[in-house]
Design goal:
single chain; alpha/beta; 5-stranded parallel beta sheet; two-stranded parallel ribbon; 7 strands
Length: about 130
């Protein structure tokens, strides 16, 4: 078993990564860091740089947590990609970051986090930043 974190290089993503490292340490399970890029995207702010990943993996190592980074591509459905990876790797828990969105924003854009929370067949730890996720 392992802990899966959906990581994006944002304050919310950083909070999720920190919580996942702590969770993996407490459970003595390896950490699976997932940073998925949208297939065909010319520019994607959710793609972690090598420096971002080096920082997160260094934090995991400092906490005594074994880790592995996956950077798969997804077409349209990031939530389904995360859920499929959780099943494929038999993770015990999924860790995701939450950010505030307006009702209109949720209606128009949907919410990957909401879908993961509702459709996951295993526990999900949802994390937000101290400022509420802005």
């Amino acid at each position: 078993m392992s802990i899966l974190v959906g990581y994006v290089p944002t304050p919310v993503g950083e909070a999720a990564a920190r919580a996942a490292i702590e969770e993996a340490g407490l459970r003595r399970e390896p950490l699976l860091i997932v940073n998925s890029v949208r297939e065909g995207a010319l520019a994607d702010r959710s793609v972690a740089s090598p420096e971002d990943l080096d920082r997160i993996t260094a934090e995991a190592e400092a906490a005594g947590v074994r880790w592995r980074v996956l950077q798969p591509s997804h077409r349209d459905d990031l939530a389904e990609e995360i859920l499929e990876l959780a099943r494929e790797h038999e993770v015990s828990r999924i860790v995701i970051g939450l950010r505030r969105r307006s009702q209109v924003g949720k209606f128009i854009m949907g919410s990957h986090a909401q879908r993961i929370l509702l459709q996951a067949d295993r526990p999900v730890l949802a994390v937000k930043t101290d400022d509420g996720g802005f």
